[in-house]
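Hi everyone,

Forwarding the result from last night's run.
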Amino acid sequence: MRFHDRVVLVTGGGSGIGQATARAFGREGATVVVAGRTEKTLAETVESVGGDASLVVADVTDEADAERMVATVVERHGRLDIAFNNAGIGTLGHVADMDREIWDRVLAVNLTGVWLSMKYEIARMRERGGGIIVNNSSNLGAHRRQRGLGAYIASKAAVSALTRTAALEYIGDGIRINAVSPGLCDTAMSRWPGEREADRAERLKAVNPSGRVGTVEEIAGAVLYLASPEADYAVGTDLVVDGGSAA
């Protein structure tokens, strides 16, 4: 029960890695609050976590929503100990063929959403003398590149750099900030449009040394490690969990 008496916020908590991580924190004793834009899927996560888990509907690209999201956690539980900034989206498109609207949306969710979340998380954590933040980046970005994913890659490379910068700025306040950078996982985002799971598995045999996609539980395990006392000396780390793709 590494996270007994810890209050944890998970953004993008209605599905995929966010949902799996919320469940993992709950199993280890944390009080979990999941945030996102869709109340129905958040409610499903809350039900599966059980205990004192709750939800807050918020859009992390909206500054007022981001501030309210963090304030709600503190109002309910008196503090915020750990935040996993997981909300993100992906899209396909070569650099010169991409619509401005798509570019702006990917950067807004994947980068600005992380910054806004950290802005208000850090402020509340400083009031209590510390806390832990883990940002969800990607093995695509700072670690490797791929054609057709320019906006996503640019946003995630920026998340990795932003995480390291924030880690340097706030470790003196007792706030430990790191990132996890997953490779392809068993989520809808890992499949090309119209691709079946069997097709994806065949495609990955040629590009992933492990020959498979990761599970969301494996990524959740990495997040919990970075948030745990065992990782107290990890500051500004970008932990790649991708089966060897970026090795």
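Strands lie at 7-11, 31-36, 54-57, 82-85, 131-136, 175-182, 238-241.

Cheers,
N.
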